[in-house]
Predict the 3D structure of the following.
Amino acid sequence: MLGKGYQLPQQVTYRGMIWLLAAQLVVMLPFAFYLPIWLIPVMLASAYWRIRVLKGHSAQPRLVLRLLVIALGISGVLISGMTLLSLDTMVSMLLLGFAFKSLEAITQRDALVVVFIGFFLVAISFLFSQSIPAGAYGVFSLIVLTGALIANQQSPAQQISLHATRSSLKMASVMLLQCVPLMVLVFIFMPRFSPLWSIPSFESHAKTGITDSMAPGDIANLSKSDELAFRASFDGRLPQANELYWRGLVLNNFDGKSWQQLPNKYDTDELKSQLQYNMAWSDANVSVQGEPFKYEVIYEKTGQPWMFTLTPTTRVDGQTVKYGDYRVMARSDIQSPLMVNAVSYPDSKRDLELSAQVRALALQLPATGDEKTRTFAKALRERSISDSDYIEKVLTRFTEKSYFYTLRPPLLGDEDTIDAFLFDSKKGFCSHYSGSFVFMMRAVGIPARIVVGYLGGEWNEGGDYLSVRQYDAHAWAEVWLKGEGWRRVDPTSRVAPSRVEGGLEAAVEYEGSFLEGNLFAARNFKWLDGIREKMDAMQYGWRRWVLGYDRESQTNLLKSILDRMSAVPLAALIGALFLGIFLLWFVMLGLFRRQTYEAYEHQLYRKFCKQLQKLGVLREPHQTPHEFALIASEQLPDKAAAIHAFTSLYQQLCYIPNGDFERDKPHQKMRKLLRELK
Amino acid sequence: MDRRLPRAKEITLTQKKIFILPSKISLGLMVIIFLLFLVGINFQNSLVYIVCFWLIALLVINIFYTYRNLAGLTIKAISAAPCFAGEKMVLELEVSRPVKLRKSAIYFGWKNEDLVELNLQEAQSTRIKLSHSSDKRGRFNPPRIDIFTRFPTGLNTAWSYATMDINGVVYPEPIEKKQGAEKQNSDEEANDGQEIAGGTSDFAGIREYQAGDSPKHIHWGQYAKTGELYTKSFVDYESHDVWLDWQSLNISGTESRLSHLCAMVLNFHESQRQYGLRIPGKEIQPNKGEAHKVRCLTALALYGLPQDEAA
């Protein structure tokens, strides 16, 4: 094809190189948050080196030196404590290669490759963060990269100037902006697939939120964070405050100090198989009653598989699993915001029959320890007429014997923590209350367990959605009663009823410990509430419509469209949309109006020349209109008058730009003369 | 192809005349897009999808942009400067753009001959010169010009061809034949002409300096040797009608004769002598000057070729 046989410029221009280096810097910057920070100085150093070479201050680094630098870089990545085959290592290596690329002289072709890798890295940065600022920065990076592409195609004669830089940037921005409609269309309609293979995880992704075990005080730590856990919006009826118990995990095993899920500690995969083995989900165990809640939840990235739903969840879509302890878990750790739809029937009865495994788990107690509590519990049960009565008596004790709900509980030592809490300190947080309650149930043979999750949440101004934050973390209890199944009991609600109705902030108002030590939490600045609300709504929209748009959302959208129209018109509509975008581009790029921006008199003069050409007089490029008129009238004596009149009108219009011709209507006269020439 | 792109004095690149294809390097971007799609699927990450689709859109819109960079470009042939066979023929073109469509980094060229880069940013039109080697005398029709661009991103190549309806005259290669033949045959002996003293053309000798002599004519070399000023004296020849006659040449071969005559024309022109040209079928009366030279050379260039009478 073309290109062969031509001496096209091969090397990147100085200007192009500066653009490339700037783009590299822009692309690599956000990775400093997640990966070894020394990658940035390495990149800067090689960029500096390159610029010196370009300016002729340094020699081209030799191969040996380059290899040495590369080897150093690779060992640097490995020394930074990364394992060989993790994603972080791979991304670091990619970044390193990206930075070192500028050590060698590069051709225009290489420049394009550098930009392409830059595009790839921009996308990869979204595996680390998907916040709105990260998104905005990503768009900026794309613009700079595209600008670098353009700058590398421009003529070598173009100098580095503010004007040239601005024009490249502007062109890049306009191009990318014009791409948006097509991008959105593809984003909406491009089929989505389930993951093709399991992916390595990120080491640098910190696990946040609720953990899988609970010692007294654990949840109090979470209460210091106002980070978002998830958001939920409801379709149909809205739950009351005392119905918003978001179940996350169930803790069965107590070792005398802390609670965990099962007698042994498992990693996520083992845990799932244990749960599947001991308490697989079965529809038969739930007798559905009452009205359902239908809701949609968008979970924030936690790096953990826990999901939080209302109990019992009978239907949930997406990559999720339900288990027999009424929890829902994600199939893989939540590494990016995850949206699911769920249905729960809160009035249902659960597990009217209790399986032997579950019963055993729900009655487990350490062989010894907390003897005082055990004795006390047995005595109290003797005095009660039924299990229900006993439960009530235990709960009443929390209200009557001056227990306090506090975020600053005293330390309880290492042994007999339940005794210490129940009989001495009497000051505690939800984990203390639920833990000691379950202990007292199990001490008298009532199956009981702790549920950890979130309680409540905050409705946005319009009441469209509920935001649940880390400080809403909560632990409560479940007891199993014959004929009733599992019953939710929240001992904390007896001590601090305001925790349920007004949230944590209200419950600890008296001691002012809400978000203590978190000086900059926006919650602590009341005057920021309006802005916070707006930001929050924006975040929600971002999560809901951008990050949460997955296979299910796409299916739902298509279904709702297909309800209104059949497949053929839909396909036609999509086709028309694509066509519309192309037409729009044609118009935007000015490809339809070929000559219309030429002044009218010039258009008329061109017609005039064409007409005379038909009559046999061709205007040579060097002839002025006047010369041409002389020649033409010589050859066409009968038209001489018209030719001269037309030419003089044209010249007036051209060379007396501010003349007042409006009265004379020169264009009209020109058109008339043109007709005479035919 | 030739019907789509006829030979013309003025060519405007319209939709029918512009071709466009992805460049090889854009395959690299397609690979990146594919990888990003896989990453998007495996991490179920909407923003990765967005970057992926944005790049697809960029690839597509780029076709429009590259097309636009050629669209509406008007190429007008201005001149094809005459040259001698074996030299480069220079074609001058005027390239102009529609008012609203700026142009960057457009290449004009002939393969293995010449390549010119064109930018029309502020200016509406500009002139460029392209050169093409010529191998034989006659009328030279410049071959099809390749016009191509990769602007703005290098992901696509848009190209078109322009075959300009203009021709230039290629004069025979001037080769003087030293066969002694000329002395005998042509009545061109220069010294037969009457010398006109005080001329400016031919060096005649030196004489002592006289007041009023032009300092240009002072013989500085002699001054350096002798310390006396001498003036170089020149003569002009008022030639008789010197004829360069085809018939009187003792050289075989049409082309050799033409080459020789060409060289002679140049010689005589340089020495500002009056000369006429006589070749079979054409006789040019003795004269001198630039226009005369061109007429003679053109006659030599077109000798024996069809249509040369019309030209």
Remarks:
- Chain B is about 25% helix and 35% strand.
- Residues 46-70 of chain B form the longest helix (25 residues).
- Residues 181-301 of chain B form one domain.
